[in-house]
Amino acid sequence: MNGRLKRIWQALFSVGRKKNSLKRLVTGAAVPAGSGAAMVIAPAAAHAASYDGVCGSGYGVIDSFAVNGGTVFLTYNGTYNCVVTVRDTPGAAEYMTAGVKLSGTDWSASTTDEGDYTTYAGPRYVYAPGHRIDWGGRINGSGKDIYNSHCG
Question: pTM for the complete prediction?
Answer without folding.
Answer: 0.69
